[in-house]
């Protein structure tokens, strides 16, 4: 009894700093920025989320908004995550794929009364992706591609089923990138294939909906080749060639094709064209802006900049309204950048960056509608704030 009392006294004397010093700092290995919530995987395989939670996409079935990182219950040993619209998706280290949040998505088309807890939907996977129009795409070890969720708009190919459906008409695939409305798959020869909604012609001139995958071609009709990475946006796509050169096609809204988007400007870029961004090793195509990590380690952005998602420099006087078609360098991030994420939200967007020391940096808009904040920056803010400077997210386990 005396020993117990002594322990209590010692803890009281130490004060609240005891908990802080005993807490384990969370180091992050991968990130994903969705329309209204974000996810991160820690090096120990746990999943953390913050932002909107209307459908239980953060794993909290009370539907409470979390403005700071919250550990998602019921899921561990995770390798990668994807934040969708009202749902979340995780690829475990054993190759199984799990989803939670919006019921119809989580149960592969089966209606449920409320939000779903993490539920396995596939196995044997090597990569996952989500569209903000409520569908998910899975790349398997054998190079086949499968999809689930909302079948409208050609998201799930020509023969969608009630659950996980194979996307037919593809050669063996090496990687995938899922945009808001369409998917691009890169085959093992470096040729991209696309299907889904063709609004903005990211998949070349043709039908409004493309259910059977088609090769992305150049204006001369020859297939685009030599691609090492793809990033699909909402209505446009970006390609990194093996040389580091960047090509873009699709909607030029917000100057995303790096040309004037004002009255009289070309609204779309029907075929891939070179974008003047330099030698790039990683891209992230958001809805209204894009990020590029150059081979020299510098970070650049272009597109819509009204709410500080680009950088403090984006408030310079310009004659392009609130659009920056020319790249702007983002400064202020300490450490080596290893992963970049431009969020998939329209207008009220933000950015996430992961550095090699496991730190996540964020900036942009914390507002998702009519002045209401949802905590999507992960900085503990619930108001209609925007942060124009990259700021590290702090949390402990």
Automatic annotation (TrEMBL):
<dbReference type="Pfam" id="PF13540">
    <property type="entry name" value="RCC1_2"/>
</dbReference>
<dbReference type="InterPro" id="IPR000408">
    <property type="entry name" value="Reg_chr_condens"/>
</dbReference>
<feature type="signal peptide">
    <location>
        <begin position="1"/>
        <end position="19"/>
    </location>
</feature>
<dbReference type="InterPro" id="IPR051553">
    <property type="entry name" value="Ran_GTPase-activating"/>
</dbReference>
<keyword id="KW-0732">Signal</keyword>
<dbReference type="GO" id="GO:0005085">
    <property type="term" value="F:guanyl-nucleotide exchange factor activity"/>
</dbReference>
<protein>
    <recommendedName>
        <fullName>Alpha-tubulin suppressor-like RCC1 family protein</fullName>
    </recommendedName>
</protein>
<dbReference type="InterPro" id="IPR009091">
    <property type="entry name" value="RCC1/BLIP-II"/>
</dbReference>
<dbReference type="GO" id="GO:0005737">
    <property type="term" value="C:cytoplasm"/>
</dbReference>
